[in-house]
Amino acid sequence: MNVERCFYPAPAKLNLFLHVVGRRADGYHELQTVFRFLDYGDELEITPRADGQIVLVEPLPGVAPERDLCWRAARLLQAQMGGGLGADIRLIKRLPMGGGLGGGSSDAATVLMALNRIWGLGLSRKALQGLGLQLGADVPVFIHGQTVFAEGVGEIFQPLVLPPATYVVLIPPVAVPTQAVFSHPELTRDTARLTITPLTEGAWQDSRTRNDLEPLVTRLYPEVAAALDWLGQFGAARMTGSGACCFAAFAYREDAERVFASRPPGMHGFVADGLDQHPLFGIV
Q1: Which helix (H) or strand (E) holds 140?
Q2: What is the largest CA-CA distance in the chain?
Q3: Alpha carbons 281 and 250: distance in angstroms, whole number
Q4: Would you tell me which of 86, 148, 208, 223 could form a disulfide with 53, CB atoms 3.0–4.6 Å apart?
Q5: Is 53 inside a domain boundary?
Q6: Could you tell me if residue 280 is inside a domain?
Q7: Shared-domain flag, residues 151 and 12
């Protein structure tokens, strides 16, 4: 049983754009998006147990264990080895729930990767991605661990190289329920498909791309619209995922820090650099 590390990062992600290009017969939406990780996120302290118990230390308020993605990820992985070892899992939560930054999905992916290492299971990245997809559509990209152009429900990946960037991320004081947004009758679901080629020229930042969920979410949640309006003064501002968080990219960190420092009182968020790889990429 490998216990060489106790703390494991669970980084945030941004959807640099998000197109809804169709809806499958099973109700899931066909997407096109670019995922990029940030050097900011949650953190998990994971300690192995020999008694087979999965224990959430300091569980999230109001979230039952069977609904907690960390607990579900550990139990799913435990089932692959037929029981035996367990773990204490303590989540250090920094990312907002309902923010579109992938916090819960990232947490689940980190649990799968870390316990695969700690328990000595030796499952491949592909196998872990398959398990992750059972937990949520965004979990596999965190296990894949690199910047990608993603299709399908968000689990079909093509590698993408992006220039360095620092992001100002604003966190409006609302939680946006992903399922409610995707099921809303006014959601655009027929955006034309893109090929990856123009994306290498920065298409995620211009009129060729957008977040198809943004018009609906800003209409339902004026707090998101206000954050986008303010941030849009300094560059192309977009919502990530199904919201509520918004971001803008800057070539130089000092510019991002200056913009963030000028935000109105009561407007919360953070500044983070983009990552080309997940911090745990090398452990799988």
Answers
A1: helix 139-144
A2: 55
A3: 25
A4: 86
A5: yes
A6: no
A7: yes
Q: Which of 159, 194, 217 is the last residue of a domain?
A: 159
Pairing mode, strands 156-159 and 166-171: unpaired
Range of the domain at 243: 166-275
53, 98: one domain: yes
Strand 86-92, strand 54-57: pairing: parallel
Domain with residue 124: its CATH number is 3.30.230.10
Indicate if 13 belongs to the active site. Answer: yes
39 belongs to the catalytic site: no
Question: Bridge-partner residues for 270, per DSSP?
Answer: 169
Query: How far apart are alpha carbons 248 and 234 in whole angstroms?
Result: 8
pLDDT of 63 reads 87
Q: How far is residue 238 CA from its own chain's centroid?
A: 15
Q: How many domains does the chain have?
A: 2
Exactly one of 42, 68, 138, 212 is catalytic; name it: 138
Residue type, 84: G
Position 17 scores a pLDDT of 95
Active-site residue (options: 13, 42, 68, 107): 13
For 83-121, the pLDDT digits (tens) are 789 999 999 999 999 999 999 999 999 999 999 999 999
d(CA 85, CA 260): 45
Same domain, 36 and 154: yes
Q: Which amino acid is at 111?
A: V
- Is residue 284 one of the residues assigned to a domain? no
193 in the same domain as 85: no
Mean pLDDT of the region 67-89: 92
Q: Per the structure block, which two tokens stand in for 149?
A: 């152009």
Q: What is the pTM of this model?
A: 0.94
Domain CATH code at residue 271: 3.30.70.890
* Residue 27 φ/ψ region, left for φ over 0, alpha for ψ in the -120 to 50 degree band, beta for the rest: left
